[in-house]
Amino acid sequence: MYNLAYDTTAAQCAVILQKGCKKISVFQKLMDFGQAEILIPQMKQMLDSAGISFSDLGLLTVCTGPGSFTGVRSGIAAARAFSLAAPQVKVCGVSAFDAYALAFSAEELADINAVIIETKRDDFYFQLFDAELNKISAPQAREYDDLKSLLRHKKVSLVGDGVERFLSRPSGLSLHCIKMLEALPVECVAEAGLRCFDNKLIDFPKPLYLRAPDVSLPKAR
Length: 221
Known about the structure:
The chain is of the alpha/beta class. The protein has helices spanning about 35-50, 70-85, 95-100, 145-150, 165, 185-200, and strands at about 1-5, 10-20, 20-30, 60-65, 90-95, 110-120, 125-130, 140, 155-160, 175-180.
C-alpha cells in the first residue's frame, strides 16, 4: 500500500512517499512561510516520479498540529480536498505529538517521555507518554516552570523542536535521553498514520489548536 505523508505545521514543508514501510522518496525544506505554495507541486512531482497517480494511494497522512495556524490549516485543507477528489483513499490525521514520540528507539524510552514543541513564545506545547508510548497527559501549552514541575523526580526522555530552548537553562531533571530535533521527521508522520491504519483507528484530520491564532486589528487611519 502506498502512503503519502506530509507536514506543514511548523518551520518546514516535508513530504514522504512510502510503499508499506519502504521509503520511495522524501522531500524536506525548512521554511517559516510559504509551505502551501510548495506542497501540492511537490506531491505531484513525487507521484509522477514513482509512476503512480493520487488514486493509487491507499493512505494519505497529514500532521494536524499544533503549530503555525496557517500551516495547520493549509495541510488539512489539502487533505480534505484530496478526500473529495479520491474518496477511495483513506485520509488520516495524526498529531505532531504522536509522530514525534515515534522518533524514540526502544532503548531511548524512559518512564516519562515528553514531546516538547516550539511555540516561539515563552511557553511550550507538550504532551507526556509512558514507557509504552501511551498518552498520560493531554496536549497542552505551559510555561517553563509548570512543565519542569511535571517532570521533576522522574526519569525522563525529551524529544521535539522545543527541547533545545527548554534545556537552555539548568533544569535539574533526571534525563535519560535528549533528542533535539530541528523539525518533525516526516518518516514519523508516515509511521503514525500507518499504525492508525493497521489498528483501524483512522481519524479524519481535524486541526489541533492549543491557543487562538495570533491576529491584530488594522490600525485606524
